Amino acid sequence: MTRIGLLSDTHCYLHARTFEFFAGCDEIWHAGDIGDLKTAEALNNFRPLKAVYGNIDGADVRRVAPLVQAFYVEGVKVLMTHIGGYPGRYEKGMKELFMKERPGIFVTGHSHILKVMFDKKNDFLFINPGAAGKYGFHQSLTMVRFVIDGKAIKDLEVLDIPRDQSVRAV
User: Fold this and answer.
1) Which of 29, 106, 107, 128 fits a 20 to 30 Å CA distance from 120?
2) Is the CB of residue 76 less than 8 Å from the CB of residue 148?
3) Which tens digit of pLDDT belongs to each residue from 96-120?
4) Is the Cα dihedral 167, 80, 119, 56 positive or negative?
5) Which CATH number is associated with domain 2-164?
6) 32 vs 38, 69, 109, 126, CA distance in Å?
């Protein structure tokens, strides 16, 4: 059993509750727009980090985080990229990537909109954790955590912090 903490679009900002929410997690995944190396290092020092870079990330972040990651956690293949679209409206090139990788979970960020749904057409769980940073149009900071147990994906929980409570940073 592996406990996952997932966030995206931090834009150099980590709310203090991030670490409380991810305290029981075995690893953290970041779906891009990390912002800077300091943010990535703070997460990685807390729990092992798997990350992809986003459109606002500079060369420093791009040196340590790829555009796309495909990896296994227990019996589930994960595909993660920052700009991936969403079910029914995926970005160009995603269909070919799905055919090649055959993920059980597809993780993307960028939209700042929390969305978790099963994509029946592509046969995977789609997760966009929304935005955990304070920059953008979103009204709440959101992040998710869940469990992968063998091939089962379960116990998904959402942390939703109203934006007016997002003044505490780490």
Assistant:
1) 29
2) yes
3) 999 999 999 999 999 999 999 999 9
4) positive
5) 3.60.21.10
6) 14, 11, 6, 16
